[in-house]
Amino acid sequence: MEHCLDGVVATSTRISHVDGEAGRLVIAGYALEDLAPHAGCEEVLHLLLRGSLPDATERDRIGRDVAAKRELPSTVRVVLGEAADRSVPPMDALRMAVGALALGPAGNAEDDALTVVGLFPTIVGNYWRLLHGETPVAVRDDLTHGAHLLHQTFGVEPSTDATRALDTYLVTVCDHGLNASTFTARVITSTGSDLASAITGAVGALKGPLHGGAPGPALQMVFDIGTADRAEEVIRARLDRGERLMGFGHRIYRVRDPRADVLATAAERFYGTGSQRRLYELARHVEATALRLLRERKPDRRLDTNVEFYTALLLHGVGLPVELFTPTFAVGRVLGWVAHCIEQRTRGRLIRPQSVYDGPTEGRHRPLANDAA
Ligand SMILES: CC(C)(COP(=O)(O)OP(=O)(O)OC[C@H]1O[C@@H](n2cnc3c(N)ncnc32)[C@H](O)[C@@H]1OP(=O)(O)O)[C@@H](O)C(=O)NCCC(=O)NCCS
Hints:
Strand order of the largest sheet: 1-2-3
Structural class: mainly alpha
Shape: globular
Distance between the termini: 46 Å
Number of strands: 3
Radius of gyration: 22 Å
Bound molecules: coenzyme A
Largest sheet: 3 strands, antiparallel
Strand content: under 5%
Number of helices: 17
């Protein structure tokens, strides 16, 4: 049997709790559906780092502190420039840029955390512009975390609707128990290593298609279907070919992913009555058809909508290209990563699981011919 720590409790945390049976996600004491539609990233960062929601003054202060860290260090600029010259994919560029940060183990943990959080949207947006031969724009300190990403990417003032939609998304994905990238960050931190190393490892884990990569294909399925009357035929054909429907099913949730509900509501509000409303209606129809057909095919396996389905719709709506979907996920998840690193550093132990050896044991070393004499 393959051992992959399924169901193993590896640490305790006050940062988030995932209840897969009940379809519940609690972020530092607050149900996601209560938090995400109302709280901005700055409030949630305060909650994750300091354990309580801020009042307005505290929120503004932590927002200003993060915004003051947005300027790229010169080494990171050089790395991004070189990466763009070689057309490196955005997640690799993000990993390289974080790896180029010099945050020492002796640093102030919260200060380092704010630096990493402040830099993430700058790195992602700045790199997107470089990759497309455009000049990066100067950072602004009067924008929220989400608005900062949109501004760095597109170089224009983001709309209120887009900012609200993106902030809801970023809060929705800010933390999710001991997922692979968070676990990676905690393992690295547990060795006494620094925050930049831990976050570099986390970005590497998130990059893998089994962790951060499904929203692109989920959106593509909606585009491929095109009109509601084709949904059943296209989905049936995919299932007949043994394909998995992207945006459905989850390893932990046995009911609907609570994040899907939050993002579906945000998508409905964002698409409103505008010209893009048709895309939202189509996605709802595709979702309903997919759920019906999955139930028909797998009556004993509860396959429900996961976070990726509405992520795709929402990020597409705010204008972000598919290539930036996973980096945008990182811009949200970095809030949780830094909080976990600090928690691990203050109360965790070296994480050192064991393995079952299943290789041979009877080998005998023979000196190589040249060594015999
Ligand atoms: C997320 C995912 C990997 C979870 O997988 P899992 O819990 O290990 O589920 P299993 O692999 O045990 O699958 C159980 C059964 O349901 C089927 N199934 C699972 N997800 C499915 C999907 N999205 N579409 C069609 N069938 C699916 C499997 O084929 C399997 O059928 P089988 O028993 O006949 O082989 C899986 O649901 C998936 O691939 N989803 C699509 C990708 C996606 O949206 N990922 C983002 C997750 S947030």
